[in-house]
Amino acid sequence: MKQTIIYQLKPNFEQEKHLHNLCSMATKLYNTDNYIRRQEWEETGKIPNWYAQKKALKTNHWYRLLPSQTAQEVCHNLNGAYVSWFVLRKTDKDARPPRFRKKEMLSPISFYQQFKVIDNKIRLSMSRKYSKENNIKLMELEFNAWKEAEGIPKFCQIMLTKGKWYAHIVYEVPEPEAELNDKVMAIDVGIINTSASVDTEGNANIYSGGQILAIQHYFNKEKAKLTSKLTKQYPKRHWSRALGILQKKHNRQIKQSLHTYSKGIITNCVAGGIKTLVAGDITNIRKDKHWCKKNSQKLHSWSFSKFIQQLEYKAIQSGIRFVRVNEAYTSQECSICGTVRKSNRKHRGLYVCKTCGSVMNADVNGAKNILKKYLQMFPMEYRSIGKVALPSVTRLQNVVSS
User: What one-character DSSP code corresponds to residue 348?
Assistant: First the structure.
């Protein structure tokens, strides 16, 4: 698993000067590459290959001043933008190619093997040409180590944000290995209930999503009011500073709520001796979903992927193995008899099986089916699940207070 930690850098005057130079050179290389690509497109109607473009730019002044992998990353990012534009042109003939960056813009600079993290410092290697012209081979930048990282640093990106320098460092964290007698918990992610969990001993827990839904409802209503006033006064405008502030506040509250819940789930896993956490694979969960206006708004505003990612990295940091399984039909299948029916889900989240007569919470039923899917890869004697007890309900305010 890869984990990204953002550190604030503390460069001195000379180091900040070099960072400005490197970021400025990255912008100039980006614009040079963009100019060559546009010329090639106008003459031949084709997008130059990234490898051919990289080879052609190796003698460029700005390319040689930057560390080799940093320069390659600048060209790679522009190549990705051109590929996206070329695909977009198939449906939108008026789509414009990637723009040039402003001359005063400071582009992010990336490092792969040309950096090291030593204690509370990042050591960056300069290119030969830059070292010769500026009499500097290495640059050591101090940073605020607010969080310890366990793993191997693989990637570093440095950027200027609101007048402050930040380093985004990607660490490769080793994942724990599974054992046959491990205690396993499965979770089913939802909207009304943020998640429901069932473990191999039959313990069940429901994490209510009512407070998060209330946050979503409040901010959607406030944004609708502001948008209505804006369109009445300025019909051609669709955004304002007030809407931007409201959206940022909305994002912060939802992010904090998801972090609170994910931390609470992992804390319960550690306390309960859980060694493996299983979640359903929710890729393309919104695809081809056409519900009523109210339910569609809930579905498309919910941060399923972000919540699963938070659970994954927090689980691995706590020494818990994280696994994703295909959750197809887990909400329709009865976890007792295995019957699959679309109409089994009833009002208020109840799952009623017409075949065996079982009645249970629908999200708990889905979590149990996810757990059963995971256990199928083990021998029969390790697939047993205890009788599922009546689930306990955890609300956001209870997690915060504990």
Answer: G
Provide the edge-to-edge strand list for the sheet that holds 184-189.
321-326, 276-281, 184-189, 193-199, 204-208, 392-394
For 397, other C-beta atoms within 10 Å of its C-beta total 11
| Domain coverage including residue 392 | 184-401
Residue 194 contacts residue 261 (beta carbons within 8 Å): yes
What residues are paired with 161 via a beta bridge? 164
Q: What is the pLDDT of residue 63?
A: 94
342 & 392 share domain: yes
Identity of residue 171: Y
Assign 3-class secondary structure to 231-286: HHHCCCCCCCHHHHHHHHHHHHHHHHHHHHHHHHHHHHHHHCCCCEEEEEECCCCC
What average pLDDT values come out for the chain (402 residues) when binned by 10 residues?
A: 88 95 96 92 84 87 94 92 89 88 94 89 93 92 83 92 93 76 87 88 89 88 90 83 92 91 92 91 58 51 78 88 86 83 67 83 89 86 78 76 58
Q: Does one domain contain both 111 and 204?
A: no
Q: What's the predicted TM-score (pTM) here?
A: 0.72
Q: Last residue of a domain, which of 172, 204, 235?
A: 172
pLDDT mean across residues, the chain = 86
Residue where a domain stops, chosen among 128, 148, 172: 172
